[in-house]
Structure formats: structure tokens, C-alpha cells
Amino acid sequence: MRQNSDSCFSFCSNRCNSLWINGYPTHMKNSQSISLHNVSLKNSQRKIIKFQNAIIQEKYLVVDDRYINLENLQLKRYNVKKAEGQISNIQYLNISNNLDSLEIFGPELQIDQIYNYLKLYTIQQQFEDNYQIIKILGKGSFAKVYKVKKIQVNLQLQDKQEYTYASKVFNKIKLRQNQEENELSLWKEIEIMRLMKNKHIIKLFEVFEDEKKIYLLLDFLQGRDLLSHIYNNNNVYDETLVLKLMHNVLNGLSYIHSQNIIHRDIKPENLILKQKNNIEDIILADFGLADFYNPNGDYLFKRCGSIGYIAPEMLNNEKYDYKVDVYSLGTVFFLLLTGQQAFEGQSSQEIFTKNQKGKVDFKLLDQTNISQAAKDLCMKMLKQNPLERISIDEALNHPWLQRRKQNLQVDSFKIIKKPTIVRGLKDIIRCNTPLWINKSLKSITDSSDNLDYLTFNVRDQTIQDFIDEEVQIQQRGSNNYDLEDDTIEEDKMPSYNVNRHFPLVKQKSFP
């Protein structure tokens, strides 16, 4: 049996190799498992598989003394009609790779439970049969994000429920322009997101694929990004709010690091409120540049992120570890405390140079009405030398964060909007969405041999395209979404309220 070779997952190792592996998986943790009771199994020859014990735990289906790695296998669900046309209570699941398949069947209740576990780790088809697109939320070079809804019908109870999600949709044609790198990047992003099970981190629910697109179903975050929320609340907030925010983000980041993962793209756009007007319910999003920590520095993309938020050791092409995320969060912390970015300049080159050298004007902290403890933590997070920089655990135990249960009586402070005039500024780079969809919309070459001649590698719209689009929007006199043309209110997005982010081009760490 051979699956369609057009799949972006066809060359994943467990799709190309034998479906079954002898032995027992060695990497399983003490996580929740599902027992396959009251169900039956059939192999690809339609023969019943007899077993004594069968469970699904993490990404593995274990049957007696052998197992299947479920990651990125194809999953189908179906039922069989009775002779009189009624739908049978028996439901079927089919798991397959390029060479073999397994069928699981049994009562609807048990199959529902198994399916709800399998769908996180596998790839399904027929997205449009399961979801309805409501509107576009954002777009980038490789993907668009849509608000979608799922209507789930229980045929036995004649009941239906409606759920809302965000769907990150990848264009497979664009992915194939640099197929090996882009597919490896996609696999890694999905693999990492499947591990994320923390209330302060964006959640992945399931993945679909058809001939043209790949669909990631994610949390729909009803609140806006962090900066937009502050602006919509008259820009005024106090230190207590910042303390709660930092505690929650640090907790989420601590969880990410406990999974041996570095995020590498922490910035205001990737901090989003799950619910409107509840800043304590903050979500860390976008794992497009995340990777598993490698002490040898071997990464798919070695130098990456948004200039102005990147740790200096990464820009200096040195080996780095989890503390790059501490530094990036420190730049966000600095912005919240001072109302200004840690690195500002009149050009991308100037911002790049300041970021590379870690030149932060800490005098700005002394000009704010904040506690000495908050200033101390911010400065320790922004230490240029990673050996002197505070760690996540040390930050969580810092005296300032230990005060989170107290009612701090401090003065309010605010971020001052600094709108940027785009017309005529050639160094502006659009960072066009807060919804985790774009790794480098317009990127800067990061060749260590050519840092004096930073050039744009336009992968989406040019500056002139942007200006033309803004003129068209003004002529239409409308700020509404145009779904047919997939245009969005990009001038309303948070990157227009602070100095521009400069995404750094991804550098391969392999030939």
C-alpha cells in the first residue's frame, strides 16, 4: 500500500519504515494513557489481531510487546451503514503509513475516546468536512490564520455543539519552493507544539492535510496581543499587573525549557490574551522558530528571531542555551517598564549593532515610577554576558516576583505610542500579524562576512506594495475584512504602535 507522495509528511521516518516496532518505547513519561478495552484490531490483511494488553500513551500505541509511533501517520475515521440505511453504533479508525495500516473498531463511546487522543499526533484529511471558515485573522509568507468553527454532531443523542478555533493554514506550493528545509521546519514546529501542555502556552488540537494545504487547529485567543490590550485600556497600568504578567510568562517559559525546548522568538506580538481584558490569562504563541536545545549548537536555523529582541550571543554567532529566551523576555519587560524598546535607532543597521552589543540604556529605568526590585530583575535579565544573566528558575525566585501575592501600592505608568510613518522609509520591515504565522516576512541577510551591507530579502510584499495597499484601503473608506481578497487591518496591529521589528533571516546549520 502506498500513500499519495504529494503529502508533506511522506518522508517522515515512521511513514517510510515498518508500522510496528518490536519492544517497548523507552521515552514515555508518567503521562495519561488510554486502555483499548472493548475494541478490536485488524491488520492490513483484514485479520483480527489478538492481544492481552493495549494502551495509547503520548505518541505511542503499545500492543503487548510491540508498538507504533503515531506521529504524523495518517488517520481516518468512518462508520458503516446497516442494511436498512441506519448508521451502526460500531465506529472505525484507520491508522496507516506508506507501507502498512491498522484498523481499530468498536462502540462509538470507546472510539470517540481513542480518536480524541489520536488526533493530536496524526494527520487527517477532509478539513472542510469538519470545519467552517469564518474570517481571516492574519497572513504571512507561508501561512494564513483563520477563525474557524467546528460543529460536532452526536448522532446517537441527536445533539450538536459548536466550537471555535484558530486555523493556521500553510500553502504547500510555497513550502515546496525550498522543500527540504521548509518540511523539516514544519515537522519540528508540529512536534514541539504537540508537547506543549501548559495553560500559558498556545495549544495544538489536530492537523489536517489536503492536496494544496496543511491545517493546524489551535486555540482561538479572544483577547488581543499584549500591547493592543494596554492601548485599549488608556495605556495605563501598574506594577502589580506587570508582575502578574511576568510571573505567568516565566512559568510558561519554564515549562517550555523543561521539555528541552528553546522558543527563540519572544516578543510582544507573541504574547496574547486568551480572554478579553484578562491580562493574567496570557498565552505564549508561535513556535515557528523553536527548537530542541542542542549543546553543540546544531540547529535547523541557528540565528533567528526579531532584531531588537534577540540575545547578543545569538547575533554574534556564539553557542547559546535557554538564557536567550530570558534575554528576549527581558526586552519585553524593559518595554513594559519604560514605554521604550531596549534598542532604538534611526536605521536597521543601528538597531542591529546595538542589539548585537547588548547596549541597553538602563538610565531609562531610573526615570520610571517602579520599585527597585523590578529594576533589578530587568537588569539581570538583560545582562549581555549569558554567564552573568539570571536563569528562569532564579527569576521566578527573585524577590520582586515573590511579592506577587501582596497588594503593591505603586504609581501607574504607561507605554507611549510611537507611530511610525511608513511612506519613504526604506528600512521599515512589516511584521504583519500578532498571530504566530510568520518567521521572516522581510528578512535581513545575516552573513557574518557582510554585516555592513544589510539587504532585504523580500519574501512577501514590498514596501511599495504596502503603500499601494494602504492607499486602496483609504480609498475604499473601510476598515472591515475583505475575505475575498484576504486583506486585513494591518495598520491596527501592534507592530505599528512601537518601533519596527526586524526579523533576522534564518541561517541553516547544515550544508
Q: What is the CATH domain class of the largest domain? A: Mainly Alpha
Overall mean pLDDT: 78
* Fourth-level CATH superfamily of the largest domain: Transferase(Phosphotransferase) domain 1
Query: Poorly predicted ranges (pLDDT <50, ≥5 residues)?
Result: 416-471, 477-511
Describe the fold and architecture.
It is built from 15 helices and 25 strands. With 511 residues, the chain is of the alpha+beta class. It has three domains: 13-108, Roll (PH-domain like); 128-218, Phosphorylase Kinase, domain 1 (2-Layer Sandwich); 226-504, Transferase(Phosphotransferase) domain 1 (Transferase(Phosphotransferase), domain 1, Orthogonal Bundle). The strands form eight sheets. A six-stranded mixed sheet has the order 10-14-15-13-12-11. It has a five-stranded antiparallel sheet with strand order 1-6-5-4-2, covered by helices on one side. The protein has a four-stranded antiparallel sheet with strand order 3-9-8-7, covered by helices on one side. Helix 7 runs antiparallel to helix 9 (323-338). The longest helix has 20 residues, at 239-258. It is elongated and about 80 Å long. It starts with 12 loop residues before the first helix and ends in a 7-residue tail after the last strand. Residues 416-471 and 477-511 have low confidence and may be disordered.
